[in-house]
Write a structure and sequence with these properties.
mainly alpha
C-alpha cells in the first residue's frame, strides 16, 4: 500500500506553523509546485474573478474551484486571494 507522505508532511508543517514552531531553512525554502489546473484557477482568482466566473471559464462548478483554491492556499502558505498577487507572477 502506497501513501502520500507529502500530504502528511504538509499538514504537520501547517500545524507547527499555527503554534509558531520554527521550521528548518530547507523546509521553508522548498519549491512549491502547483498542478496545471491549480495554476489556471489561481491566476484567475489573482486577477479578481469569482469562483463562479472561474468555473464558467474552465467548465467547472464553483465548489471544485473552491476546493482547488484551498489546495493552492495551503501549498503557497497563504490565506487570501489578495496574497495571490504577491506570490504569483
Amino acid at each position: 500500500m502506497e501513501i502520500d507522505a507529502e500530504a502528511f508532511a504538509e499538514r504537520t508543517r501547517l500545524e507547527l506553523a499555527e503554534f509558531a514552531v520554527a521550521m528548518s531553512p530547507a523546509a521553508m525554502h522548498r519549491t512549491v509546485e502547483l498542478t496545471e489546473r491549480e495554476s489556471r484557477i489561481a491566476r484567475r482568482a489573482r486577477d479578481g474573478r469569482s469562483n463562479a466566473e472561474i468555473g464558467a471559464e474552465l467548465l467547472l462548478s464553483a465548489p471544485p474551484v473552491e476546493w482547488h483554491l484551498r489546495k493552492v492556499f495551503t501549498k503557497l502558505r497563504i490565506s487570501s486571494r489578495q496574497e495571490l498577487r504577491t506570490v504569483l507572477p
